[in-house]
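Problem 3 from the worked examples.
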Amino acid sequence: MTRVSGIPTSRAANFIKFQRDPLGFLVDALPMGDVVSLRTSSFRPTFVVNSPDFIQEILVHQEQHFRKGRSSGVLRRTIGDGLLTSEHSVHRQQKKYLTPVFYKERIQTYAQIVQEETERLADSLEDGVPVPMHEVMMQLTLGIIARSLFKTELDADKAELAAAVDVTIRQTAGTIFSPIIIPFAIPTPGNVKHKRAIRTLEAMIYEAISKGKRDPDAYADSMLGLLLDTKDESGNALSDQEIRDQMMTMLLAGHETTANALVWAWYCLERAPGARQRLHEELDVIRLNEESSGGERLSAYDRYREMSFTKQIVQETLRLYPPAWAILRESEQELVMLGDHFPKNSSFLISPYAIHRNDSVFGDAGVFRPERFDGGVSQWARFAYFPFGGGSRGCIGSQFALLEAGIIMGSLAEKFHFTSTSGQGEAEPEPLVSLRVKNGRWMVPERRQNQKSSEKMKSQSLE
């Protein structure tokens, strides 16, 4: 018996609805069946995949029969042939030489950088003065990526580089789901703006490559140093172009996604006072334990290991608002999955955003409830919860992303809680390349009372 069902609406109606509200379209398709045919062309049929076991077939068991296809072609305009866009043997080779970037011992070193950059941000925030949270988180995570992976201090360039990333993300998102892809060589206003943004990012990257070649010892423990030391299968050093592509990939995929997730986390906590209180209590216990042990602060990595509820907040945010809200695959041959036949060039649309909202799996799936992760992720089917994708193309930096988000949340929430400024209404998701809060979010950092008391005591002791 087939597990493929047809969508009841017409092809034209589906196209219009998806263009207007892709997230709503995918959530509405969730109860329609395990695999939902959108009744498109018989030569290039399109399916929405809702069942975890079918997703596992596509991303793991039969992944060798699929390509990323159209999405990679569009992303390649910006990041070139990096890990995110390469296919098959090239992807396997790139993943092999990039994996050491995220070894545990390196992540422990990155943790300290995350802590330092976040504390610098905390020192710059003024009690009661609103900030554009999306821009603040973007600049913070951009600085972290530049320092941890490229050993580059951005300082005054953060705002300009973050703006360039924003342009590339918006232009790319506008193209991926467009029915017509205008060639990049045509000087439309969008293409001109996009290329200018790429040049801005490349200037930083090529300067870092040049410095790394002049002083390799100074970059030895960074991703850049690793790339400069890497040899291909013929024993040749990687070209500057390939190094540029990998750095551009990490720059775009490695910071914008985390920044978006953090904005959603602050927003969700504002609307879940119980969860926010539990977060503050956890952080206060860690701080008090440090003080009772002689006042010596734990290392950033050891502190992160103590933040069990903070981690659950990050996991729950990624459930409700996964940055990678859609995964696209195209079949390279006719194939059979779980008894159903699919023709060559079939397109499959997988949405973690929709699948994470399955009430039959999560119960109150639309509610922000971090404690649901008390039992870990193994309580659900493998692809019922998968914010970082899966298979060989799963996010290589997932552990770093979780650590980064956790340390940032812990460091800022220890000192502040954040409240949205009035007049903004409910936050709406904006599905670009990753899932943003539409129009950003202005929030007010309000210093916690225990922090105010602590600062007052320090001031009196200095007097």
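Problem 4, a separate protein:
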Amino acid sequence: MEHRGIEPAEQAATVMTAAGMPRMPARVMMALIAAPEGGYTAAELSDRLGISAGAVSGAVRYLLTTHFILRRSVPGDRRDRYDLAADTWHTVLMSNTPVYERMADYIERIGASAADDPAITTRSSEMAAFLRFMAKRLPEIVSEWEEQRAADAQLEA
């Protein structure tokens, strides 16, 4: 099997890990960016990355749960194939927008439960305000991205 983009994929996975994504899911996700049409099977991911089937299974489970990848069945083949979900980043960001609002609510409740401690109320109100800002701005940013992508596509046509 040809292994295109191994070094940049490993470097990108290192950056994703530094940003908080678990190491194996980051490696599998970056490998899928360099996957041929139709993605990879679990065995191909294991071979490409030099990791165990169990490591692939755990990484795939994480990436499926977080909506970064898709599992595809191929007629006549018992093995599933894995591929990146379309518009991965903006889909994941948008699906997390309600989480920011819920977190802000809970964090405000933490602050309210310690109203006699100014450090706690300041910290919780600042964090809640930031999360509410993100919940408001993310849909706007994604909309701007979609407009930019459409404009770029028109220029290329």
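Solution to problem 4. Strands lie at 40-41, 69-74, 77-84. Residues 88-156 form one domain.
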